[in-house]
Design a protein that fits this description.
Number of helices: 12
Shape: extended
Largest sheet: 2 strands, antiparallel
Distance between the termini: 63 Å
Strand order of the largest sheet: 1-2
Helix content: 40-55%
Order of helices and strands: HHHHHHHHHHEEHH
Strand content: under 5%
Radius of gyration: 34 Å
Amino acid sequence: MTKTRFEKDRRESNPRPKKPRKRCPAKKTKTTHPNSDDDASSSSKSTHNSEVRDNRSKLPPEEISVATTVKPKRIIQAVKPKKEVDPEYNQIKAMVQTKLWRACKFITCHQDRIKVSTKINSFLVFEGDSSPEEDEKWIIEKARDCNKGVNATRAYSHGEIKKKMHNYWLYNNKTLPTLEDFKACLKRTIDYEDEAQKDIWKFWVDQILDAACANKFDWNPAVRYYQTISKANDGEGNTQFNMLMNPSTEAWAMVCIENYYENWKKQFEWKANNPNAKLNTGKKEAKGKKDETTDEVEVPFPTNKWTDSCGGQIHYCGWHINGLKAYNTYKAMNKTARNTAKSEELEQQILEDLKLENGIVGDKPKDKKRAAVEEEVQIVDTLDF
């Protein structure tokens, strides 16, 4: 039989010499000490353990101690969280959202950080003995966590306000109220007889202020459909931390909208024209990725008025000092406007209209009770195993 062309050119293979495999050492039992190599000792320990189990099984149940009983079955954590959860920080952040945010929107220096930490320390409930030395130590150690909680709450509120503005833009012919219209809401100079201004005032009270609260309960329907802005209270006191809608909250809403106004309008327009593209908001100039219908585009969004996305939150919480001054100015404006008869009239009118639109009757929300199920509950088996 003749060899093929490939078999002629193929060189002879030299197989590798077989090496004897080394046997792996046997695994030691759990009863064997890690440093012990004595088989006799391990066998004696296993024998002793079996005798103990036999003797334990012969004892009556009441004589078996709790330590020797079988442990209950529990789930072992299979998926580890991406970040370690600090339960104490979560409590601090929750207290910022539920209490402190009503009177604090920015922390600009170390003295303010200590002041905020002291206030949160007075709000929280602790276990164990407390002393002035322990409180002072906690205030200093947790000052940065308190600052972090305020920054996180402000970022959450900013995102909620943006959502409300986007929804208004979508359902109002892709337009937004002007900044002067929002300032008229803040200063209570709205003409309630003008339907356009009336709708903007309603949007401010019913949507924007809800987002500015940074939580889901301070200005929810059970509050804003029964109480006016200036008198809304949690019923636990008369301090600024008990008032649900302080001038600082309205001032924050105004300064937030003014800061991002031009940028948001451009983003809304770009997103409507590129529904399948992802928006990169981490840079001043965002690039749209290619999709099936459009080519790659570069969109220079307008810069924010008082913030820089790359500036961080170390100095003035990432805001320019002029933005903080504008915040204080708007807060003073709103505080003055609330003391006028015009403000009281506008707040009462919008409250009555919101009640009428939502079918609200009465001065207090009804207690939520679970409706009783009269008919018999039928069991339907839908499992495959």
